[in-house]
Design goal:
There is one protein chain. The chain is mainly alpha-helical. The protein has 2 domains: 8-43, no CATH class; 51-149, no CATH class. The protein contains 6 helices and 2 strands; from the N terminus they run αββααααα. The chain has a two-stranded antiparallel ribbon with strand order 1-2. The protein is globular, with a radius of gyration of 18 Å.
Length: 150
Amino acid sequence: MKMLVNNNTQASLIYQTQNKGSVTVTNSDTSIKSENGVDKITISDEGFNAESKWQEIADQYDPENMSYHELCKMSSNLESNGLITSQEGLALRAPPSHGFAPDKKYDTVALARKSVESDQSFGVAQGKDAQLRVRALDILERLKDLANTA
């Protein structure tokens, strides 16, 4: 069976869901050691470069203080680099409110968190749209964390 893996983190997470052993991912022709033996996963160069692309984008934007225009540009950048899906990009670009000012800066992380909490309070957290909002929050938090560690 062949599997396309975009980065080391994905390889580790996928393998951990199937096995309880420890996981080590080191290079593009990766040996993953577990209690059951050794499996091989080949990770593309794009996968190895994904982490540096995430960091580059995080260095350019502050998701806690950005305009809608900046958010759209960031989302397009993430999509064009293959880091998020088009559906995730659309979820990120959901307008913050009716009649918003596209150049006014706001905290996209706080707004995304509020949307997820609202879904949970209404009991719709398992719906497809709600799951996309969770993923959008995860993306924004990841960028925030990467920016804070730089």
